[in-house]
Amino acid sequence: MKIGLAGDHAAFEYKGKLIKYLAKQGIETVDFGAYSEESCDYADFAHPLAEALEKGEIDLGIAICGTGNGMAITLNKHQGVRAGLAWGTEIARLVKAHNNANVLVMPARFISYRMALSCVKTWLATSFEGGRHERRIAKIPIQK
Ligand code: RB5
Predict the structure, then answer these.
(1) At 100, is the secondary structure helix, strand, or coil?
(2) How far apart, in whole angstroms, are the C-alpha atoms of residue 77 and residue 9?
(3) How far is CA 124 from CA 30, 38, 60, in A?
(4) What does the pLDDT look like over 29-72, one tens digit per residue?
(5) Angle at 7 between CA 113 and CA 123, to 5 degrees
(6) Cβ–Cβ under 8 Å, residues 120 and 84
(7) Ligand 1, atom nearest to 11 Cα
(8) How far apart are CA 60 and CA 28, in angstroms?
(9) Which residues pair with 2 in a beta bridge?
(10) Domains of the chain and CATH, by start
(11) CB of 10 sitting under 6 A from ligand 1
């Protein structure tokens, strides 16, 4: 299991702490940046994470910015990505169980680190329920 993490300046602290937490669990991580708290643009880190996911270089992603919306909007431009925003553990559970989100997105400026960690733990521990949700997520990509 390899997890990619990406965040802008607003997410630098949480991303670093999550990388340390995941390493302690024996989970391999790839840090797509940002690498400091200097002001930067979330899309510069979201696209490389999404591309790595689409190529199968990572299995899952965690993306964080101030509101989570910049990351989610950018990541979901990629066909192979289902990025879901969570700010509480029940939403973190449902975004995997119902939407099979392969990227968990969180808003660093609106939740504590403790809550972010709880969301990550819940999302990782939850399995996709399949069934009717399989049919629903199959309709997400633009049908040509
Ligand atoms: C950065 O100030 C902020 O715009 C960004 O972290 C995010 O909230 C954008 O969606």
Answers:
(1) coil
(2) 22
(3) 16, 30, 9
(4) 999 999 999 999 999 999 999 999 999 999 999 999 999 999 99
(5) 55
(6) no
(7) 6
(8) 11
(9) 28
(10) 2-138 (3.40.1400.10)
(11) yes
Q: How many CB atoms lie within 10 A of CB 65?
A: 28
> 67 CA distance to ligand 1 centroid (A)?
6
DSSP reduced 3-state for 120:
helix
Q: Classify burial at 112, counting beta carbons within 10 Å of its beta carbon; exposed 0-12, middle 13-18, buried 19 or more.
A: exposed
Residue 144 confidence (pLDDT) above 90 = no
Separation between Cα atoms, residue 125 and residue 140, nearest integer Å: 24
Distance (angstroms) between ligand 1 centre and the Cα of 26 equals: 30
Q: Which of 80, 75, 91 is nearest to 123 (CA)?
A: 91
Report the residue among 40, 42, 45, 73 best suited for mutation to probe ligand 1: largest number of ligand atoms under 8 A from its CB: 42
pLDDT (0 to 100) of residue 143: 87
Question: Hey, what amino acid is at 141?
Answer: P
Any catalytic annotation for residue 98? yes
Q: Model confidence over 67-125: pLDDT tens digits?
A: 999 999 999 999 999 999 999 999 999 999 999 999 999 999 999 999 999 999 999 99
